[in-house]
Amino acid sequence: MVGLVIVSHSATLAEGVAELAGGMGAEVPIELAGGIDAPEPALGTDAMRVLEAIEQADQGDGVLVLMDLGSAVLSAEMALDMLPPERRGRVLLCEAPLVEGAVAAAVTANLGASLADVAAEARGSLVAKATHLGTGETAAPAAAAADGSRTLTLAVRNPLGLHARPAARFVQTAGSFDADVTVTNVTTGRGPASGRSLNALATLGVRQGEEILVVARGPESSGALGALAALAERDFDDAPAVEPAAPTPPARAQAAPAGALAGLAAAPGTALGAARHFRLTALEVPTGPASDPRAEWDALGRAIERVRAEIRATRESVASSAGEYSAAIFDAHLLFLEDDALLEPARRAIFEQGDNAAQAWHSAAEAVAAGYRRLDDEYLRARAEDLTAVAREVVVHLLDGEALTTAVVEPGIVVAADLTPADTVALDRELVRGIATAYGAPTSHSAILARSLGIPAAVGLGKRLLDVPEGTPLVLDGDAGAVYVDPTAELVRDYEQRSAERQAAARLALASAQRPARTLDGRRIEVVANVGSPADVDAAVANGGEGGGLLRTEFLFLERESIPLEDEQYAAYKEMAERLDGRPLILRTLDVGADKPLPYLPQRPEANPFLGVRGIRLGLTEPELLETQLRAALRVAVSHPLKVMFPMVTTLTEYHEAVSVLARAREGLEQRGESPEEMDVGVMVEVPAVALAAEAFAPEVDFFSIGTNDLAQYTMAAERGNEAVAGLADGLHPSILRLIRAVAEAAEAHGKWVGVCGELAADPLAVPILVGLGVSELSVNAPAIPATKEAVRRLDAGAAADLADEALRLALAEDVRALVAAETSTAPIATSERSKP
Ligand code: PEP
Ligand code: MG
Description:
- The protein is α/β, with parallel strands linked by helices.
- The protein has an 8-stranded mixed beta sheet.
- Residues 647, 686, 707, 709-710 line the site of magnesium ion (MG).
- Magnesium ion (MG) is lined by residues 647, 686, 707, 709-710.
């Protein structure tokens, strides 16, 4: 019997609906996923609860999930994503109204009907009420034919015709009704094509001014045509309701000269090279037959799910930084993944021809892409590349990510919409000369990675960047945050010369990089490195790093299927500590959530993930995870100078709780007969509340480490991955400097030290101010170490303190920058190319 799941923000509402529906179908399994685990009123939805409810309701004949609104739908989708593919196929998320739908579904399920029939009844459940109130469907602008089908002719007015975005809206709309919908291009005679297949629809090549004939058959044909007519009236939702605001000019980007795509400086340096679109290169698809078609089909399902999750994440990030309109293009990419035009031929190739999943999927995608390429319309022809790119991602996952390293296979400048941290790490440093992205901001984790890899980068260059044809010569200026497309010979010469000068300056700084950094009046400033991998540690040592000031442990947790075990973590941290050869290392406990989600630790969708459960908040909701990590750290600390610190702390209570988890970790080791050493414990200052309460923290901590990336984000209310507000999040803003001063003063009063591990520490204009405020450790990306040491050596600590006092009296970050530039001789010293150890 088909089971039902009721998903509601309110546990009470879910129970009420179940009571009503249960009265109609006593035998039907009805499971509830209402409310969340939180203090009353506990309103919300939880994907894990939905998953459990689905599992309990599933008797093998299928499960219909009915949801109330908003995040209920998202939670249900997440739960669906978490189900194994073989079970996912028999679960249907249904858009029917919750109360009427549940009652109708229970009645029908009780009769032993199939899942499709139960869903159809639920969907049609408003008809009785609508008829009674006289507000039933208005006469559809459609003609009914003798075979029961209905037809409708629509004019397409969109400037680019029925291209990807409007076609995606058409398919989403048609797909939400129980009706077969076909479309014929009346003007050209092409078709009919399925109105539920994005690829079939888009390859009809419908242009502006052409007419389409829509034919619908099935129980909800009239509703489908009504909704499609309304959609056509709205020009298929293709006009951006509000043009995204022009990004605020960033404080730190120099004005991009005429003729360049202007964005934000993300990693210093310049690069010359051909445009290499990220992951558009050919893949080696295995051609051997497969022995187990069912296993191949399941593997394909899993790969598709992973790509779906990645696209959704990109969609969310683009929606928040560039608006819904720009993000809607990713809806089309999602539809590629569920399109029968691809899935059906792939399924046949696997089950009937015995092809392996990668080959079957690749061939199906290539056939559809060829259809796009045959079109007259240039815009639609270009969609073949979108499809190929999405399909390629699936193949990459099928090949177990092996192909990730070949994402860019020819030397040049990587061009992408945005890059995730995982994408950035996977880039082949030998081939990638620079990174240019249409979206993103300089303190995003990908930009940080680019800096630590020594790859010049410019971000937030706008979507015109994505139209640059593959192979086009580019000059990338990572200092100005600009990209020149097809540069003149003169410009190329100019940049070559700048690049040569930069390298000469970097060589000079590198020559004295192994010496400690002291100010002119003898104050010692430790310059250490932010590291996320053993290679980073080697680069840090080669560049004169005096230790690791921030070990971002999350890179051990990302891009894998399960939590690393204690021994694996121990081995990884130990290896890094060993490579530092006696130099100190500060391990930052896991800082995931927000822009670094973990696939195996699903989190409830959050409206503002950066304000949600991330950093230590996640550590304290998953104390076993934290305890395991701390046990691994304590074991390393027995033989290496290791310290720990906690990220994203907000209150002293959180700090106390984290310290008790550390105490439990210690006890655990003692019970195992081990003798852990004492270990220094610090707090990261990333939330203004900690800086303002530094007096209360100072007696309890061993040190403070200021994470200016997040501190700027939270002080200035400017999301760190969002290019539109990146200009606001300048760490040299006097408001942020006042917070740093508060920390430094509290620390000094209690004999504790303060470091800065945010990107600000590597900014030559910030070094005098930070030293002047009393910071004694600067933790920077490895290539920036020599230049940071040089910047320290040029300072007089007393004069720097006066300069910091003056900076604190100013109003704007720009004023502080102008002051420092005028008062110090800060001819920028180039960061080194990342030395190859
Ligand atoms: C910071 O926020 O400044 C910091 C160093 O941590 P992360 O960039 O990893 O969030
Ligand atoms: Mg941070």
